[in-house]
Amino acid sequence: MDTLLQDLRYAMRSLRRSPGFFFAAVFTLALGIGATTAIFSVVNSVLLRPLPYAEPDAVVRIWNSFGGSPKAAISPAEYFDYHDRATAFSAFGVYATGQAVNLTGADVPERLHASYLSVGVFPALGIRPGLGRAFTAEEDTPSGAHVVVLSDGLWRRRFAASPSIVGQRITLNGESYEVIGVMPPEFRLPEDFGAIAPSELFLPLGIDRASIPNRGSHFLHAVARLRPGVTMALAQQSVRKVAADFVRDFPDDYPADMHFDATVVPLRQDLLGPVRPALLVLFGAVSLLLLTACANVAGLLLSRSDARRQELAVRTALGAGSGRIVRQLLVESLLLGVTGGALGLLLAYWGAHAMVLAQPGDIPRIQGVSLDLRVLLFALGTSVITGLAFGILPALRATRGNAQSMIREGGRGRSAGLASQRGQRALVVAETALTLVLLFGAGLLARSFVKLQSVDPGFRAENILTSRVTLPAREYSTPAQVTRFYGQLMQRLAALPGVTASGAVSSLPLATTLGDLNFHIQGRPEAEGDISPKADWLVVTPGYFEALGMRLVRGRAIETTDDERAPGVVVINQAMAHRYWQGENPIGQRFELGGGAGPGWVTVIGVVDDVRHGGLDSEPSAQMYLPHAQFLLWDSHRAIAGMTVALRTSGDPARLAAAVRREVHALDPNLPVSEVQTMEQVVSASIAQPRFLALLFSGFAVVALVLAAVGLYAVLAYSVSRRSREIGIRMALGAREHDVASLVIRQGLLLALVGIALGLVGNVALHGLVKSLLFGVSAMDPLTLLAVSVLLAAIALLASWLPARRAARVDPIVALRSE
């Protein structure tokens, strides 16, 4: 220990005598370790940290599979059958997310996200309220008591974390509910982990088995807990048996060509599987950056150890063994690594905080990113390992050679040894290869993002303000009341200064998911076993197509005369027209909405352009737009109470937000207005994840490019300084400045080209990792590969030109006299 402390004190004195080298090495390592630790903190929070449920490995998801969709929700009728007949589970529950309710009372009305749960959800997840209790089976019925469980965030924000909230009553959608519990702070439903606005209220689902009209209407998410000793294979077998019974017992609902099946997936795999490839690719990229930083510092240490050859020779002559010298140099490199790691930890904290603020979309649990003990241990381990990695080669190199000959040579400018030169050049080649891999990945993601941005969404997003309004069922119990409110609201909003078009829609593009509805086309009888035609449905008010800037291809749009007294009409998109009336004129075609949805029979009056509702990277689905004044839900026969208002303006749309709230409150002071945002913000949020990956990859690639250029410059500059005598002799024998400069530039370009060649091989080996993250770009895109190769060669040429110019200015007389 005394010897180690002595080595540590000597290392600190030695590094203090070389402040330029010390700061360059520490800063380089801080960049690599800081970036790696920041990304690891995300990987730790998202992929490694256990889910906040009891025995999370026993929690599974149950999905239906039909019509080409491997993860389809289940219907209420199917829920009861799975619950009663699937024997592999100790608890089984379903829930519906994406709901919203109005919280009114003494404070300002507020629109809150809510989820409706069956009584089995909390036991299936293995979670209990932190305060109070959960629902009972009696409360999970249509006639059960009005009870609600609060999220911890809502409890603290709205009710000042008062324990007395349990037992109090609050008003939701105009009805009184008793608060019976508050969930723990870490609780989230699976869908809420990636949501910017998670559920804050949990209410009983309350489905009555006897009143279920049909086996359709798939909207429920299912979770279950495996019985002790039950494997995934047995659970899968149990669920598929129930699904097979559906097909046998209800052939009209599950025809053969529907290919109905069911699957069981571990919750962790189901939740984190989609983001796992992106995060692992990102972590691999930042690891390449760390390797580049290590190679750079190793090159600096090789140059420094070559300059310290006489010092090390004297120590050897005085009796120091090679092991002691290697240990001394490794202590210095470990000191550099730990210091760089400490500074990198600070950079990691800032970087992780910035990534959370960036809200990269669809990445579950990223809001929980923190530098916990696991991250701190990772940073420490990375610092130690990198210190050893970049220090071992220079340390071993420093012990080679004859001590007496090195002492006799002194400091008279001897040329660098071949071994030292080979080591430095190998590191430069490695840096260049790693940089090319990063540059290529960044180029692919950047091109993919640009192509994604250039996709036509089917509407014009500029100058549109959107906001969400939902009417409580108690005050607006009839369809006439609902349609009258939205009719009056549209009139008032259309009269606002600067508004050029106004409309409303049930599901806003790029911000919501759609459900499909089957229908029967007039004059096309369906044979037994056929799947009925179906399309995604939206409900709109007059003016919606104009407000969104959607192009009417043929026919007419929905007008104010298309009310409950008029015959049923519908506008379809081109995808639906092509699928069901290819080669025919769809205008005038009639079909009947399935499930008893109103208005029943509808006539196609218009065709609009396709809208990429689910995302810019998804193909448009068949969609039908139904008049709000005519459409009634198939189960409750109510009008759609929740609508998103869209206003097209002549100026900045955000300036109308206060006016929209004022007009809504003028009609009903208890109605909150939520989700106020421009359509450009909606589009931007829909591509947040690819933008996040492209920016991070590009940032890592730029840092790696700078490190590689600095490393190449340092190697060539050091080589020129050590070869000044050789260069002087060349020039004394007649070599021109151009010849000397060309010699150095060729040396640098050769190293860069070898690195580029190795990088190309690396790209071929790794192209499969980024393939799933790209849109409209090949994983081996030749244009991107050529561009980054030329860029890297140009940077290498610039890094070589500066030492070459210095070499060309060597005075042969001065160089020879110094010897």
Structural features:
819 residues; alpha+beta; six-stranded mixed beta barrel; 23 helices; 49% helix
- Please count the helical segments: 23
What is the strand arrangement across the widest sheet? Answer: 3-4-9-6-8-7
Structural class of the helices, strands and pairings? alpha+beta
- Total count of strands: 22
What's the topology here?
Elements: H1 2-16, H2 19-48, E1 59-66, E2 69-72, H3 76-85, E3 89-104, E4 110-117, H4 121-125, E5 131-132, E6 147-150, H5 152-159, E7 169-172, E8 175-182, E9 201-204, E10 221-226, H6 232-249, E11 261-266, H7 267-272, H8 276-307, H9 309-317, H10 322-358, H11 373-398, H12 403-409, H13 418-453, E12 464-470, H14 479-494, E13 499-505, E14 516-521, E15 534-540, H15 544-548, E16 552-555, E17 569-573, H16 574-580, E18 590-593, E19 601-608, E20 623-627, E21 642-649, H17 657-667, E22 674-678, H18 679-686, H19 688-722, H20 724-732, H21 737-771, H22 782-808, H23 812-817
Parallel strand pairs: 4-9, 6-8, 15-20, 17-19
Antiparallel strand pairs: 1-2, 1-10, 1-11, 3-4, 3-7, 3-10, 5-8, 6-9, 7-8, 12-21, 12-22, 13-21, 14-15, 14-18, 16-19, 17-20, 18-19
Helix pairs in contact: 1-10, 2-8, 2-10, 2-11, 3-6, 8-11, 8-13, 8-19, 9-12, 10-11, 13-19, 13-21, 13-22, 14-17, 19-21, 19-22, 21-22
